Structure formats: C-alpha cells, structure tokens
Amino acid sequence: MLSDGSLSCSAALPLSVGARLTSSRCRYNVRMSESQKSHHSGLEPLPAEAPCLDAEIPGAVNLRDVGGMQAGGVRVRHGLLFRSGITHQLEPEGLTRLRSRLAIRTVIDLRSDGELHQDGVAPFMQHGIEHRRIAIYGVTAVTPGERRERFHQMARGEFDWCERYQELVVEHAGSFVAFFEALTNPGALPALFHCAAGRDRTGVAAALVLSVLGVADEVIAQDYARTGELLMPHLHRYARMRDGLGLDDAKMAVVLQTEAGVMRRFLSWLHETHDGATGLLTRAGLSRDRLDLLKDRLLEA
C-alpha cells in the first residue's frame, strides 16, 4: 500500500511455476478448440459489438461495456464492467453521466505513478465514485531514451506486442491478482478500469477476465482489435506524447493500431505456458473462491 492509499503490486510470477518467455519474437502458434474454430471460421457469428460510449460520456476515450459476449452457454452480463482509455479528461457532464447513466461505483486505474503525477485524476469522489489505484507498469515505465526508442519501433511496426504482454503478466502477476480481487470486493460493481489508451494494460486485463469467464479466444481477440479504430478520433488527446516522442500524426496512428493476431498469439501462449488465465492467476495467489465469485457476478444465470 502506498502512502496515498493506492496499490502497487509488483510481485512477479515465479519462474518455477512456468513463467517462460520466448527469447525474442512471439512465436506461439494459435491452437483453437472446436468452439473457437467455429468462431474463427465464421460458422458461428461473432457477437454484436458493444457500442462505444464516447459520444454519450463527454471526455471519454475508448469507453465500452465488457458485457454481451458469449461464454459457453451463457453471456457476460451487461452494465457491470466497463473498460476505457484515459479518464482524467472527462468533462463534468461526463463524470455525472458515468455515475447516473452507467451507475459506476469504482474506477480502477492501472496507470503508473509517473503517469498519475503527469496527468492527474478526475474528481471521481465528488461524484460518488471510488478511485482505486492498482499500478501496472507498461512501456511507459522505462528511461526517457528507452521509451522514445520503443515508440519509434512501434511506429515502424517493429515492436513485438505479444512478447510485451507475456512480460506484463509475468512481471506484474501480483497486480493482476489485485485487480481481480478489487472486482470481487463488496459493492465494487459496476466498475470501470483503464490505463492510458485502454489497449495494452487494459486490453490484457480484459482478456484475462473474459478468458476466465469462458469467452472464446477469437472473440477476445476481435474485441481487443477494436481499440485501434476507436482511438483514431482521439489522436489530439495524445498530442503531448506525440510531440515529446518526435512523432507526427501518421506515425502516432500506427502506434495506436491494434491487431487481433497479437491477442491470438498471447492467448495461445497463455494456454500452453500457464494453463490459461485461471492457471496464471491462481498460481500467482488468486483464490478459487474469488474466481467463482467473479463468475457468479459477471455471468448471466
């Protein structure tokens, strides 16, 4: 617990429980179950996309409901869990609607200490919303020179996102456990979780939740891939980052692109290396009772 009451759970998953990363590029092949193959082949249509709520919540970025996806014989409940990009630019009316229309009780902020210091936090408490910090340190948590080089690799299409996601869940397994525990705390839902763009840390967190609930890999990958498109209207919000990194709008747009294949490979690696999201999280300390509670709350009866 930090002095400001936030959580910074940096415990890594021990290598002894199978936290093996690829040595360079993400080389995992995608192996799908029969149900996943039917989604991939188009024999069974993917679910209708949850609408982006940016127009309804002034100042929101890439805000959407995680609910509605098929999870075995049931669906993920609508209106209980939302994901988004930055929230510190939410307008007063947006904050009001976050509480009045979406009934949000908790905002789980996955940003690093540096991001929080630089951008600040929206006045959630004034609107009856709890702000909960669970820091997960992404590509922003490196030296300025390393950060600049990584973003230029992204702009050139040379950055291996799949490998980065592998590192993320291994190095910050404790933070993801804390995230799941926060979702199952009494009165936490409906909740919104976010990072900066709502793609990487948020995308991995969403993938873990959906995978635990039983959503097919291909559905998760397609949902992940929506983020790039949904961020395009918000390029101006990342102008300071763009200018500081020496990028133009075209290169920044490439940085924010999101490909389903990245998530497919990551999930395949997760199944092969950690027995899936459930295996990863339980070995990192998440109790089965918490997992069962999350399923009870987020899956339709």
Structure explained in plain terms:
The protein has helices at 34-41, 92-100, 113-119, 144-155, 161-171, 173-183, 201-213, 217-231, 239-244, 249-255, 260-274, 276-283, 288-298; strands spanning 64-65, 70-71, 74-75, 81-84, 106-109, 130-133, 191-194. α5 (161-171) crosses α11 (260-274). The protein has 301 residues and is an alpha/beta fold. The protein is built from 13 helices and seven strands. It has one domain (29-298): Protein-Tyrosine Phosphatase, Chain A (Alpha-Beta Complex). 42% of the residues are buried. It is globular and about 50 Å long. The protein has a five-stranded mixed sheet, covered by helices on one side. A two-stranded antiparallel ribbon has the order 2-3.
Order of helices and strands: HEEEEHEHEHHHEHHHHHHH
Indicate the structural class: alpha/beta
Strand content: 5-15%
Radius of gyration equals 18 Å
CATH class: Alpha Beta
Main sheet makeup: 5 strands, mixed
The helicity comes to: 40-55%
What would you call the shape? globular
Low-confidence stretches: 1-11, 14-25, 30-45
How many separate structural domains?
Answer: 1
CATH architecture: Alpha-Beta Complex
CATH homologous superfamily caption = Protein tyrosine phosphatase superfamily
| DSSP summary: helix tally | 13
Strand line-up in the sheet with most strands: 1-4-7-5-6
Overall pLDDT score: 84
CATH topology: Protein-Tyrosine Phosphatase, Chain A
Q: End-to-end distance, in Å?
A: 36 Å
